[in-house]
Amino acid sequence: MREILLGVLASLFFAVTFILNRSMEISGGSWLWSSSLRFFFMLPFLFIIVSYRKGLANTFHELKSAPAPWLIWSFVGFVLFYAPLTFAAAYGPGWLISGMWQFTIVAGVLLAPLFSVRIKDRIIKQKIPVISLLISLVILIGIILIQIPNTDSLSMSAVFLGILPVIVAAFAYPLGNRKMMEHLDGKLDTFQRVLGMTIASLPAWIILVVFAIFTVGLPSMSQVVQSLIVAVSSGVVATTLFFMATDRVRNHQGKLAAVEATQSTEILFVIAGEMIILHIPLPTPIALIGLGIIILGMFLHSYYTKVLNTRSVALTSKETE
Fold it and tell me: What's phi and psi for 66, nearest 5 deg?
């Protein structure tokens, strides 16, 4: 249950990303700067945190000992996650991007067969947790209902350029996150892992910055400030909270799916934030029903996770008797 609460809290801070990315696009900022600046601003904060916790030496040791997995999965988990999200913000409203992003709930469940778990001397391939998938589909129904009232205003460019990149990001984020957890197997804590992945993703962000300078010029001060807010809120606080929650349940696909499903609450925070900051109207009755279904899905995931924990404790007690 603590992991679920951590995931919901992370979603609150993640919501800032969708609201401010849309705000920056409306004011004329380029997605190239919105995506890259976030990770450059994250770096000093993470350095300070990891240094204070005396974890820099271990972090750099892991980076040097196996650079290939770091470069590959950091690119997948950070670059292929955030660059498409900021790109999509140029072609679709915030409610569409944040709503479609919830597809990551189902994507995370479908990725289960790509991973294995070691039990004693045996390596067992993970299976898709059927119950978790069904609950995630319930949440997805709620997300679809939220989108229905707005579909009439969508152009084909918004559909393809605003939705397809988000689907890529929805698969990339859990894939990169899980693969790095699998590679490290608990050798680094959450702060060290986020710092390492940020450092390993820097070559891609540097390339985007160079491209941005020659194509769109330097960012405005407003975009720099908003990117800094996104970096602290979403990049440092939200990412750390979410990775902390997934780290705790990394060996159980059902519980992991439940934690990843907490991202569905982002849409609630985004709608509230856009109403306050960007002055969007109150959601329609159909959208409110969708919100209710999302909350129901989250309750089901929490209940299922509690049942799994109870069974796990019971099995452990029997084994020790």
Answer: -150, 75
